[in-house]
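Problem statement: downstream parser choked on a complex file, so we are re-checking the raw output for the zinc ion run. The parser issue turned out to be on our end (a line-ending mismatch), but while we're here, posting the original submission so the record is complete.
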Amino acid sequence: MPDNDLHLVNVRTAAGIKTEILVREGRITALGTALDGGGMTQVDGNGDLVLPALVDSHLHLDKSMVGLPWHPHAAGPDRQSRINTEKTIRDGLPLSVAVRAGNLIERLVVHGTGHCRTHVDVDPELGLSSVEGVLEARDHYKNAITVQVIAFPQSGVLACPGTLAVMEAALSAGADLLGGIDPAGIDGDVEGQLNAIFSLAEKYGVGIDIHLHDGGEPGAAEVAAIIERTKAHGMQGRVAISHGFCLGDIAEAAADRLIDGMAEAGITNVTHAPGGSSIPPVKKMHERGVAVAAGNDGIRDSWCPYGDGDMLERAMLIGWRSNFRTDPDLELAYHFASQAGADLLGVSDYGLAVGNRADFFTIPTETTAEAVVRHPQRSLVVHGGQIVARNGLYEGGT
Ligand SMILES: [Zn+2]
C-alpha cells in the first residue's frame, strides 16, 4: 500500500455525522460509511472529530528559539527595543536557523497545522542567511507541511538602506512574497516604503503582506494608503495587512470606512490576538466582507515568550479577546485559523470533500467549538494522505 493511501474509520465530521475517509495518492476519494478500502490498512479514529488542517497565516520561523534552553524575555516594552534586542541575541544562538525553524515546524505539525506563511528577516547585515535557513527547513519538511516565505524587512525598508535589494534577491532565492513594516512608524515615509514594495511586487508578480503595528490616526492613514496602492497596482486579492491594531482603536465610523475599503480592495487582515494592543473588530470585518486569517506570530523568540505552535489555542485567544462565547462565534474563530488561511495562502483543493487534498486531523472533542476552547492533543495528523503525527508526537513525512 502506498504510504499516502489511508482508510480512516470511526470519525465524526463537524456536522456530527459518523463517517469513514478513504484516501488514495494523497487525495480524498470517498467519504461515507461502509466504504470499501480494498485491502488498505484501516486506521481507527476512536470516534474523534475530524477537521481540515489548520493554517497558520503569520509566523516567524527564523526567530524562534524552540529547542534551545529557556531564554528569559530580555526586550523592553516597545517595538524598537525588541528589534534591537533580537539583533544582539541572534548571532550567538547555538542552533542554526534551519534547525530552529525545523523544531518549530514539528510543533506546528503535531498540532494539526498543514500550511503556514512565515515572515523571514532580511537586511544587509543578514543578507539571505535567514531566508536560506528557512528554505532548507521548508524542503526538509515538505511532506509534512507547506511553507510560504515572505521576505520581511524587520528593520525597515528606507530606514535600513540596502534592504530592498536583499528583498529582491530573496525572491530569486525562493521567497514567495514581499513584506513591509510600519511605513510611518519605522521608515517615517509612507509613500516611500509603499512605492518601493508595491513596485517590486508588481515587477515580480508577487503578493504583499505588511506588518502594521502603528495605532490610531497614523495607522489609519497607512491603511487608507495601502487600500489606494492595492487598487492602483491592480493587486486586489493579493495584499494582506498583518495586525492592523489601529482598526481596533480609532473611532468606529472611521474604522468602518477603512473596513469597507479593505473589503473592496480584497485586502485580508491577519490577526494573532495581540496581548498589548487593540485587536481589530474581526467579527464585524468578516461580516462586512473582509477576509480575516489568523497566525501565531512570534513563538518563543525575542519578541514573545509564549506559544507552542497550536492554531486552535490561537483561535481560542482570538475568541477570548473578541468576547466570542456562542458556538457560531467560536466556529468563526476556527474559520480564521483554517479555511480563511487556506484562501489567503492559495491552498487549492482544501477541505474535507472528495477530490481534495487529504490534509486533516482528529481530536477527541464533541464539536468544533469545544476543540477551540479546550484544544486537547491531536490524535492523528494527516498531510497529503500521510500520517505525520500521532498523539502529540511528530512522525515526519518521507
Ligand atoms: Zn509578525
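For whoever reads this later: The domain at 54-345 is CATH 3.20.20.140 (TIM Barrel).
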